[in-house]
Structure formats: C-alpha cells, structure tokens
Amino acid sequence: MTGPGGGESPRVVIARDVLRAGVRRVADEIAAAHPDGVLLIAVLKGSVPFTADLIRSLTVPVEVDFLAISAYAPDSGRVRIVKDLDADIYGRAVVLVEDIVDTGLTLAYVRGELERRAPASLEVCTLLDRAPRRILPTPLRYVGFEIGDEFVLGYGLDFEERYRHLDHVVAGDVHALRSDPDVYAAHFFAG
Ligand code: IMP
C-alpha cells in the first residue's frame, strides 16, 4: 500500500485501542499484586511511552526510575549500564518495565544487575513478548502482547531512532528500513 507522500504504509500489528486496553489490563495486574505500591524501573528508551501510560493507569502508589543500557554488538550479548538508577532498590518491590523481550539477553543482564542490589521482589513487565526468538528464557510476570517473529515499530520501538512516536505498533520491513530508514516517513509525517 502507498501512503500519502508516496512511501510504503506498514501493516498495523497492534491498533491504538487494543494497545490501550492491554496497558490497562497489565496495570490492573500490577496493582492487584502490589496493593501497597510499587517502584517501576523503565529501561530507556523504548519503554517510555508504555511506562507513561502504565503509571497513569495504576491505582496504587507508584514511583518510577530509569535505567539506560548500551546496545549490544550483534551476537556478543554484551551490554552495560550507561545511566544508572537514582533510587536505592534495596528492600523495594520492583517491577522492571521493558518494551520488548526478544532474545532475552538484555533482560537477563539488567535483571542480574538489579538482583545484586537485593530488592524485596523483582518482577518483569514487558509490552511485547517475542518468544520464538528467545535465547535466554527469563520469567515474565506481566505481558502486554505476544507477537510473532517480525520486526516492529512504534509506541517506543524504533529503527535508528525513528517511529517511536507512533501511538500504535506496526510491522517494519527490515530490508527496506536498512536501505532507507525513512521509508515509512511519508506515511507518518506531513509535508
Ligand atoms: P533482546 O536483548 O534481544 O531481548 O532485545 C531487546 C531490545 O532490542 C529491546 O529492548 C529493543 O530495544 C530491541 N528490539 C528487539 N526487537 C525489536 C523490534 O522488533 N523493534 C525495535 N526494537 C527491537
């Protein structure tokens, strides 16, 4: 399909309303498990829109903090913290918020780092779970949506920093994006 400016229009994987309902359901699950409140730790940058909507849907006391990690070199599995937390999580009820769990390598690293700081509890919440590609299985306590083996964009998820702003999730053609990262731009931006 061709978009308004002539660019390709990507297929919608999770529409805005479905996304909203999923976020509310996850927020209800977190609230039910943490009636006394919870500390959400969002992994930058992809989980920012999800975390922002999550905290507005939570009906229990909530604090939020942020962690940034470097991208890992393909197949190395090596990442490091480039922005650490402000909060001391010792003895706290913590929920780690991810945008997508794919191979699980990032999550395994972050989880290990946080566990060393001895929180009272550490659960994982992810907007998207792409289980078919998992290399390191890690328990996911709260899952928004399970998706298949396709690259996705929007609602925080990017390709070279583009498309994070979308209020829904679309499938991206990785080959097309690699040859032109702005391949979908005409569909999402006026002018
Ligand atoms: P993992 O370490 O393989 O589980 O990858 C997790 C990270 O890779 C996510 O937090 C995203 O930043 C990125 N990622 C994985 N799949 C996608 C995708 O389909 N679109 C955009 N980013 C992705």
Q: Counting H and I runs of at least 4 residues, what is the number of helices?
A: 5
How would you describe the shape? Answer: globular
Number of strands: 9
> Order of helices and strands, N to C?
EHEHEEEHEEEEHH
Helix content: 25-40%
Low-confidence stretches: 1-6
The major beta sheet can be summarized as: 6 strands, mixed
* Ligand kinds: inosinic acid
Measured by DSSP, the beta-strand proportion falls in 25-35%
Gyration radius over CA: 17 Å
Structural class: alpha/beta
What's the assembly state of these chains?
single chain
- The mean pLDDT is 93
Give the termini distance in whole angstroms. 19 Å
Q: What strand order characterises the main sheet?
A: 4-3-2-5-6-7
Structure report:
The chain is an alpha/beta fold. The protein has 5 helices and 9 strands; from the N terminus they run E-H-E-H-E-E-E-H-E-E-E-E-H-H. It has a 6-stranded mixed beta sheet with strand order 4-3-2-5-6-7, with helices on both faces. It has a 3-stranded antiparallel beta sheet with strand order 1-9-8. The N terminus is likely disordered. The structure holds inosinic acid. The site of inosinic acid has 15 residues, from strand 5 and helix 3.
What attributes does this structure have?
globular; 191 residues; binds inosinic acid; alpha/beta; 6-stranded mixed sheet; 3-stranded antiparallel sheet
Quick structural summary:
The protein is an alpha/beta fold. It has helices at 16-33, 48-57, 105-115, 174-179, 185-188; strands at residues 12-14, 38-44, 62-69, 81-83, 93-101, 121-129, 142-146, 152-153, 169-171. 32% of the residues are buried.
